[in-house]
Amino acid sequence: MPSPYRALFAAPGSKAFSAAGFLGRMPLSMMGIGVVTMVSQLTGRYGLAGALSATIALAAAVAGPQVSRLVDVHGQRRVLRPATLISLVAAAGLLFAAHYGWPDWTLYVFSAGIGCVPSIGAMIRARWAALYRGTPQLHTAYSFESVIDEVCFIFGPIISIGLSTIWFPEAGPLLAACFLAAGVFWLTAQRGTEPAPHPREHGTKGTALRSPGLQVLVATFVATGAIFGAVDVVTVAFADEQGHKGAASVVLALYAAGSCAAGLVFGLLRFKGAPEPRWLLGICAMAVSMIPLLLVGNLPFLAVALFVAGLSIAPTMITTMSLIEQHVPRAQLTEGMTWISTGLAVGVALGSSVAGWVIDAAGAQAGYGVPAVSGAVAVAVGFLGYRRLSRPAPRRGGTVEQHSEREERHVA
Length: 412
Known about the structure:
single chain; Growth Hormone, Chain: A; 18 helices; 412 residues; mainly alpha; disordered C terminus
């Protein structure tokens, strides 16, 4: 590992909370696809399987920011454990309901309950921010976390699908639930690196989404999420049309691998000047990288095109996390980071559903028009909101010292 990444873990407790975060994040890429595989195998109903996966994603989009807001106020340990227990009970209910053929409405109820799962990525980034706020190491830490995200998305679906098809249908979601329990309870046992809570009686009130800058970031990432959701669905359909449906997982893994490689390199770089132009450049790069997908004629070309497209993802996500620190008060940092995940989740649900409709109507090749249009929308929102984004808002409800600290970081 390059020395800047090794230096991150000189801080006491950093290795332990990072490892716990890795375990706790695996379900993010395992649960949805695991439920699809489980339900389709048990019932043969792909429509129901997809609807349940979408229910989990949308429930997480609604519940995630609320859980993170409570974390900012009460601390990670007091909030994450009860929220995780709710999610685990719901996951167990879904497995039993699917296995024993309970009515469909029970599957939807349990799927919605799984959505109470906390945003572990936001919790880990908040711990890094508490350790390295205002230092170059924080950029490296955010880069490392983006790489971990991509590693989860490379291996999580492969593990989940493999277990459910080779062992028994419920195996993938069951292991995802085990990872969640182990990761969260290990993480919350580590009190020394837990960020201090910020009770709101003397601090900022209301939601972090009141920040105009955060609104721009979230709106842009709804369109970005649509890119991701559409690419996943269309790639599976394209591989199926080519007669190699199983190759879709490898091709999509290369998409994540491109982002992983770019994140590793990006974390080694040190940038001067404001991050806003880099963010807008990243959004434009993601949009432009969708154009070659319209011209793909075979799987090898698609694999290369997606690997190149992935190179812009992690740097853009890393820069986005840095911008959140400038646009939300410190007391709402975890909630602000979770809103980005919410925007992505909503976008993924929209992109996958629209892409499915286009594929049914015109075929997989035409389906790549959905991520291309989504990229154009992301660029439009980025340009329209750029003025809001380039003027960080004052620390509402923060102390004078926090306000000055914010201004110093922006000037730097």
